[in-house]
Amino acid sequence: MDTLSTVVDSVVDTTTQAFDTLSSSGVDPWGPATAPAASMPGAGTLIGLGIVYIAVVVFAIVCCWKIFAKAGKPGWACLIPIYNAIVMLEIVKRPVWWIILCMIPLVNFVVMFILIFDLARKFGKGTGFALGLAFLGFIFYPILAFGSAEYDENA
After folding, report:
1. Which of 38, 55, 123, 130 has the fewest C-beta atoms under 10 angstroms from its C-beta?
2. Are 126 and 118 a contacting pair, CB within 8 Å?
3. Is the pTM of this model over 0.85?
């Protein structure tokens, strides 16, 4: 117990000396450690960012819903985790057991690229469009959802 007391006393003494040194040098040891309040985002900024985030998520859901509906699947399926991946596997005519491959690190990247390329092919699009879906999805998924592309089950 004496050792613990000695350690605590030592820490308190060191801390007190540090604060005294800072105070004597003109630095307020209890002052703000971050930027002044005027440069910090206010509640309005955070609410605005939240609204933008919700709008982006809703738009992504609508795009996915439309793609599922074009493929003859229920649009609401895009809202249910894991089931939406199973429905996507059905759309691109891949075996359902591939869902397990989607859960294996690094393998899931390869599987997702295959699924994206298959999805583009099923809607009559080529390799360039598939690369757009993979790397610029925020542009190409809405094009796929709202464009004139039609689902071809036999493609």
Report:
1. 38
2. no
3. no
